[in-house]
Amino acid sequence: MTGPLSGVSILDMSRLAPGPYATMLLADLGAEVTVVGGGRAGLPLDAVSRGKRFISLDLKSTAGQQALHRLAAESDVFVESFRPGVAARLGAGYDDLRGIRPDLIYCSLTGYGQDGPMRNAAGHDINYLAMSGMLAMLGPTDGPPSIPLNLVADFAGGSLVAAMAIVAALFERTRSGAGQYLDVAMVDGAVSLMSMHRQMWGTSAAPSRGESVLAGAAPFYRCYETSDGRYMAVGALEPQFFAALWSTLGLGAVPPQYPRTAWPRIAADLTAVFASRTRAEWTEVFAGVDACVSPVLDPDEVSADSHIRYRHSFTYDSAAPAIPRLSRTPVRAGATDRTDQTEAVLSGAGMTAEQISAAHDTTEPTGLTGWPDM
């Protein structure tokens, strides 16, 4: 059974993690993804390389650019993640490639977008979160903002938005027959992720860091340390869950939940009771109880969790689960193989051995010469 994107060909020149994660999701959905370059095998980026094939081109040479154009002519989607203008200097700009493939979907995934005063600025997840107003909301009141790894702007605001935009553009192309340019900026994605909170605040000032219910101010939406130094996550926002939490802990009459004046006492009671047992003991206590209480798992514990194992979330011992779940056209989690397949790919595109030799970068496995620094 083939995936929903079976027959879609993607040429991927993105670097670092957001672009490769987006194209890995599309590969899981059945697209054929060919990565141009991508660095040495064995890097952590192997975690976002499954189901793809890798080639090496020397884009400093005319032959290398001609080979790229040959592949672009047969591709439905092109993805890059350089600062504005860099891809064009490599012969891989939107105007270069749509002249070859007019219905091409061309996606640029960058930090700050293709225009604006910061279009050429360097950045990472922390910078995009800072610009979106999100970082100021994360962490305790009495400390600096907390950094949520690089999960929010890079992956949620970047990778997932890019993958969604590509699928939407492919669908629209079935009606119009036309390609288009996708300008995906991670800072835009981070701003969008803040939209619900901005609407909740309305015209009033945003709460200070650590003072909103969902930022840890509420004692019923917080992590509590157990007797063995581990943690339980409590998300009992609704009254019925809070009542179930309180009664399961054996703390007596359920106190009023939402008056902030009651929160210090509630927090003290929850802190004391959770510290009386181990994480494993509390996990057993709350098994089957509708109170929104979960053990905080370390990363190396996740794949062994009974629910995660039942859901088969991890496949091929991959660090990245295959998502989403589709009933009729399920995703496939292909194996990771970063060996250089330049000769096979280019010969499949009709190039001669002499042309392949001139275009191939043999200086580094699955590498690419001519890439400017980001």
TrEMBL record:
Gene Ontology molecular function, alphabetical: transferase activity
Keywords, comma-separated and alphabetical: Transferase
Pfam families linked to this entry: CoA_transf_3 (PF02515)
Top-level taxon of origin: Bacteria
Record has Membrane as a keyword: no
Keyword Transferase assigned: yes
Protein name: CoA transferase
Organism this protein belongs to: Gordonia desulfuricans
